[in-house]
Specification:
600 residues, alpha/beta, Gyrase A, domain 2, Rossmann fold, five-stranded parallel beta sheet, four-stranded antiparallel beta sheet, 14 strands, 55% helix, binds arginine
């Protein structure tokens, strides 16, 4: 493993300097405090807070250290020379404040530009991760909970991939539950001959599921047959397996449509895949003495829980937990993953706590949560409607994901047509129907994703088209920046600038140098360099909103920079004739939509 520190992490580099200073200041003290270096805006760019923790430990031992401030002073005095630091000072009771050097920031931005952003990826000390996300259930409709899982899971997978972790994107589809018994029996009743069975025979799979469920609940004889069917399916009887596979195929096609629309990649390894592994995994756990008899079932007791984890049901069948134990075993031993991440709603927290605890008792996972191999549950809050209750349609059904995507798109389409009309009145370019279509998909789905990612995932989330729409209005008023900034808008604006100054950028890369002499420009530059920190933090806490915050702030810094330095931007990039340049900038304003489209 590469232990070299990440070049992009400013906090880490400063922490190294402070660490050296503290060792130098207190050569005879074992300093056990973790280093605290935080970004700050008030008295500098970064701040070290360790004097507060150190002082009580050395109080009375040294005449020269009578208070926290004197400890801070000493740490400041012994800080090694570094080109990173412009100046440093003591603030408050003993904080050491650091102002970074403009030159250093500028040089590193140039490095970022020349070497490429990939070289600023954080180093995570993880080789391979499984991200188990989306994971809908066959024959049931994907709902907004699955949407959250899909969006959050995809974002986590992307962040880890960017950080050079090998990611297995796993769709742990519910394809092996007892629901198949009733589906298969109902199907046999309708179409007695398997040869006649095809996709159209079922029609709407969700309606078929409902119908089968109703028969199951009301008709005892049917229920008995359905239960028999599960046994025969799981025993591998060809006729049953064939129908099962066909049902799965219908669902799979529906799921894939959603993934295509959202641009999400997943590899399906459903519950059924792990079925053959269950018996030996349970046997291994039994041999370790972990599995006990309880009221006819076989269970694993977990400290801190009043009910055990059931691994073999009373009737001898396996359940959700047995499958998850086998899947975890497989991921650790066959796939050799060192971090396994599960993205579901917080309602499944207890299930995963128990499964992980069982795995720790079996020594599959490290007992120390910060060491590898480890497993993490990424829980997210409920999706609520604007009435504050669980998000449902009027007829109190769960909201179908496809309907939701359709709605986002059609609202966007309406919106872009209005914008189109406005543009026309002041002579803007018109969009073709195809472009309008593209724009509405791109922005509509992006709005859904962003709304899902931007707040702490653990909080419940109120689904509101109205709110998403707001961001969108700003986005489509291609006028001046307004006080509300949207990421897509700023991104489009930046792309336009980049595109128009391609030649200048090439020259800058080769021979130019970056000068940061305006405060807003410096602020933007420093924020760019904090990119690595933001990705690293989002990855280690598995919190996508940290990255969203970073990006939102980035767009704010950019807006500030742009508003204040417009003149300078023009002057500096002006290698061509001033007039033709101006004309280009004006055209660029009209061309922004093209870059909106290319964002996907
Ligand atoms: N199919 C489950 C559901 O819809 C989610 C599965 C999550 N993954 C897992 N390995 N248990 O709630």
């Amino acid at each position: 493993d590469n232990e070299e520190e990440n070049i992009g992490n400013i906090k880490q580099q400063l922490a190294n300097l402070f660490d050296a200073s503290i060792r130098e200041t207190f050569p005879n003290e074992p300093v056990t405090e973790p280093l605290v270096v935080a970004s700050s805006t008030r008295h500098g760019d970064y701040q070290c807070n360790n004097a507060m923790g150190i002082f009580p430990k050395i109080r009375g031992k040294y005449v020269e250290y009578q208070n926290v401030a004197s400890v801070g002073q000493a740490i400041l005095r012994n800080l090694p020379e570094s080109e990173m630091i412009e100046s440093s000072s003591i603030g408050g009771p003993g904080f050491v404040n650091v102002v970074l050097s403009n030159n250093w920031i500028a040089e590193n931005i140039k490095k970022m530009l020349v070497d490429g952003i990939e070289t600023w990826a954080p180093r995570l000390h993880v080789r391979k991760a499984v991200v188990d996300f989306s994971s809908p259930n066959i024959a049931k409709e994907m709902h907004v909970g699955h949407l959250r899982s899909t969006v959050i899971g995809d974002c986590i997978a992307r962040m880890l991939e960017f950080s050079n972790v090998e990611v297995l994107r796993r769709n742990h589809v519910g394809d092996w539950g007892t629901q198949f018994g009733m589906l298969i029996e109902n199907l046999f009743d309708k179409i007695p001959s398997v040869e006649d069975f095809n996709e159209t025979a079922i029609g709407d799979l969700q309606a078929f599921y409902k119908e089968s469920k109703q028969r199951f609940d009301e008709d005892l004889a049917f229920k008995a047959r359905a239960q028999q069917a599960v046994v025969r399916l799981q025993g591998g009887e060809p006729k049953y397996r064939q129908v099962w596979m066909q049902i799965c195929d219908i669902s799979r096609k529906e799921f894939d449509k959603v993934y295509n629309r959202l641009g999400v990649e997943l590899e399906e390894k459903g519950e059924s895949f792990y079925n053959p592994y269950i018996p030996r995994v349970i046997e291994a756990l039994t041999n370790q003495g972990l599995v006990e008899e309880n009221k006819g079932a076989r269970v694993i007791w977990i400290e801190g829980f009043s009910t055990p984890l059931i691994v073999v049901k009373k009737d001898g069948g396996y359940n959700y937990a047995s499958t998850d134990l086998a899947a975890l075993w497989y991921r650790l031993n066959e796939e050799q993953a060192d971090w396994i991440i599960y993205v579901t709603d917080v309602g499944q927290q207890e299930h995963f706590d128990k499964v992980f605890s069982a795995a720790k008792r079996a020594s599959w996972l490290s007992a120390d949560n910060s060491a590898y191999p480890k497993a993490s549950h990424v829980g997210f809050g409920l999706v609520l409607g604007e009435d504050g209750k669980r998000f449902r349609t009027r007829s109190s059904e769960v909201v179908r994901l496809v309907d939701l995507l359709d709605e986002a798109k059609s609202r966007m389409l309406k919106e872009s047509k209005v914008t189109q009309t406005n543009r026309a009145t002041y002579g803007g370019m018109l969009w073709t129907d195809e472009e309008l279509e593209q724009i509405s998909e791109l922005v509509g789905y992006a709005a859904i994703k962003y709304a899902d990612l931007k707040s702490n995932r653990l909080t419940n989330y109120t689904f509101s088209f109205q709110q998403m729409l707001n961001t969108k209005i700003v986005l489509f008023c291609l006028l001046q920046f307004t006080s509300r900034v949207t990421l897509l808008y700023v991104h489009a604006r930046i792309c336009t600038m980049i595109d128009k100054s391609e030649q200048n950028i090439q020259e800058l890369k080769k021979t130019g140098s970056i000068v940061l002499d305006h405060a807003k420009e410096r602020a933007l530059g420093l924020h760019l360099l904090r990119f690595s920190e933001a990705v690293e933090e989002s990855c280690s806490n598995l919190m996508p909103h940290t990255l969203c915050d970073y990006l939102f702030n980035l767009s704010e810094y950019f807006r500030n920079f742009y508003d204040n330095c417009k003149q300078r931007i023009e002057e500096r990039t002006l290698t061509m004739n001033r007039r033709s340049r101006r004309r280009q900038i004006e055209e660029a304003d009209n061309n922004e939509f093209q870059f909106v489209i290319s964002l996907g």
